[in-house]
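Usage example:
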Amino acid sequence: MTVWNSLERSKTLRLLRNKVVPAVLRKLPRAAWLPLLALSGCGNDFRLFHPVGQVAKAEWYSTLFVTGIILLIIIPTTVATVLFAWRYRKSRNASFDPTFTYSLPLELAMWGVPLIIVVILAISTYSSVFAVNPSDPGLLHGHGAAGAEPALQVDVITTDWQWLFIYPQLKIATIDTLVVPQGRTVRFALTSATVTNDFYIPQVAPMIDVMPGMRTQDAFRVNRTGDYEGFSADFSGAGFSWMQFSTRIVSPATFKSWVHETQASPQHMNYAEFLKIAQPKINKSATPAYFSDADPDLFNKVITAVERGLVFPVAMAMGNGK
Amino acid sequence: MLVHLQGPWSPWFGRLTLGDIPYTNPVIIFAFLFTVVAGIALAVPVLYYRKLGYIFREWLCSVDHKKIGVMYIILGLVMMFRGFIDGMMIRTQQVTADGPHSPGFLSAQHGYLPPAHFDQIYSSHGTLMIIFAVGPILTGLGNIIVPLQIGARDMAFPRMNAISLWLSVSGAMLIMASLFIGDFSTAGWVGLIPLTELPYSPSVGVDYWMWALQISSIGTTLNAINIITTIIAMRAPGMRWDRLPIFTWTTLSTNIIGLTAFPILGVALALLGADRYLGTHFFTGGQGGNLMLYTDLFWIWGHPEVYFLVLPAFGIISEIIPTFSEKPLFGYTTMVAATFAIAGVAWAVWLHHFFTMGAGPWVNTFFSVATMLVGIPTGVKVFNWILTMYRGRITYTTPMLWSVSAILMLLIGGLTGIMLANPAINYTVHNSVFVIAHFHCMVLLIAFAIFAAIIYWFPKVFGFRLDEHSSKRFFIFFVLGTVTVFTAMFALGFMGETRRLDYLYDPQWLPLLIVEEIGIVFYCISVGYFFRMLYVSIRDRGRNQCGADPWGTARTLEFLTHSPVPFYNFAVTPHVNALDELAWRRANGHADTPPDHYEPVHMPNSSMIPVIIGVLSFGFGFGMVWRIWWMAGFSLLAIIALIILGSFMPDPGYTISPEEMREMEAQHRAPGIMADSHPPHPAAEERLV
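Running the assembly step on the lines above writes:
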């Protein structure tokens, strides 16, 4: 943390992060990726180039920083490889010296320079890991101070092959749709009723595994509204390709009315209802469902049940067979 | 039965019923017909020329390290071809199944493969390419080259060497069987847990995967014991450690990894087997099971396994670049140190395969930094190769082209590898196709080295060179395919495409998926040129015959003896005077000096036991997969009995007398391993066992 804080305080870095990098970024994608853009038609396809929220942005800056540092060594090496491979080909009759097989200064340099690079990268890794740590991102510390709304808690349970989102504070639940307010920290607790999945909203939230009988955490805060695609990134069986959920980040007012609307839903979500919806099902069009009167303790009940051996077996015809 | 099984079970046939043979699936029928046609194409000439007995005696029962190596490589190339077809099918499925309006063919809603079938194909693609293609080819190369490089007559344990081969073959055959009888695992080559547990993978697919890996990994462990012993104990006089060729060094380091890592895989798979067969709960989500334990065990093997593959590839590049630069390898000592540094750090990085599994930031930082450390010795290797080329006199034969391209691939793989080593970046691209593109860069660099090695050492083993014309075209199209497919794949990773998708929800990915498909076309052309290269080379073998050193600038001991290498390797055991012995002899005018006297040479006899153990281990695996207990039990008991029996029948071997040796050496082309009439040695015992 200390390293991150001192990096945060560093004027040069702040300038780099707040002015230079965004300015370069605004220009860079269109120029550098032009060949690819021409192929793909639209720059916005590159989701990871357009992070939203502090955590995702920090991850993207890490990507740029690390890539930049390694290119310091990769580019000269590539140039040397191509240059020597070209220059010393036999037909060119360049100088030939078969006795050049050892050089102490070069040996020291070839171990030393990569070592220095790795030390730089290690320091940057150390600070960035704490800053974006999914279970408790350092970047979201200190912002929820006095006056700010407490974090919105969302419990996530994956089944074969749907996403159940429970809002324990609001006693509502949804399937395959996640709606959160802008500007408020959202904290997730995640578990699976069946096999391992991976919670992923490319521009918004760091990836985190969702495992049966266990609880992982994730968090983000986004200061603008928008629609994003979320999905499972870790293969979980026949319905995996259709395990998507739409992520809507809405204004606090919209969120409030959405909550009211959902609280009026005729469907309820409790453990008995959960056992029904958790049967293997491929939700091909990711049709959302809304539940009121959700059991705020459902998450813990599912973990306990799975720990005690609850499984939702997949029929042979569904999971396997040609 | 200790566990609940879906579907019927009978004592004689286990879970096997007629319905398990997918004769209604057109894709499988096509694959079946293709295999049958290929099988007939191979069998007819063998039967026509009455070579069945020859193949059985001289190849299947052989304990000659060169023949075993050649069979390893044939196995690897055949499996690589199947793995390539799998890869082609994966790409074609994804390009046809992009977006909600994509068309559906056959029984699929999108593309032409329904999820369950697609998932088997990507699982077998990974398993085949890593375990049954690249692995056996590198093992085969080590088998052929290492004893020659250190001046030995054979491996330390020739019969065990054959057993290793046949265990690998039987694992590969299990995977082939899964194509036509039952199904294969859908849980990836890594065996995603708890998806591989019985409730979530109720069919025999996971069992096929598990036993194929288990059986072949025993083979790999035995082979590692063999190679390590050979290198330590069987070096020619004068072959001090500081004169050991670099490929032998890398093979030594790789097999130390093999010996120590593969048993871990064995344990992980055995515990999974206990879960699936006995109803235990080692890795289940509940009942006290811990699925993270499997992930840890798998990658404690899985990461060293990656270096198990890449280190010999580095060794190959380190042999080829000096030969074609006409210079000794730059920084030999540093190279050896870097090799062992990589092998050592390999043990401390496994967690980087699952940064997203929720380990704390300190743990992730440790494994991240450890992973980056690998970059240092790897960088050293690259610099040494570049400095070897510096002020060299480079000839661009195909092995050299492959090697230089491998360096460039390593640079891209290294760049993306360091990116992935940072958890903050990893959280955004883990499980995306960015990772796929990264590790394909690494595995393809190994493939590049393999193709370099095959072309480089082929004349040594067979006595004639491969056709350079078609082999250069093979190279060009292969590289073109690689660049096209994986540049697009890196981009798709940044667009958020994750791995193992049967149906892709985002239609905006289509242009790049089409680019990937174009790359696949290049790959197909390159495969065509590969076959053409083999055909033309064999047709024109008379014209392309070569002497002991086919390249004229080779530096190491294996190029001292005849090409093709006679079955006794060296007429007299060479005395080694220098690192790069052949270069030393050439410089001092000793390269062609015939030995002044011969000594009796002791050779091992062929044996039927290894190939029978191979067949029985297939029977054991097949019996376990389908829970046909009598078949599995009988095969296991028979294997144990054969091994005990074999150890009570010591192989006296036979001796080649100095006179015979002089006679054979006098015939300019000594009977090589491909020679049609291998003269049965009078002293060789007729019985094969």
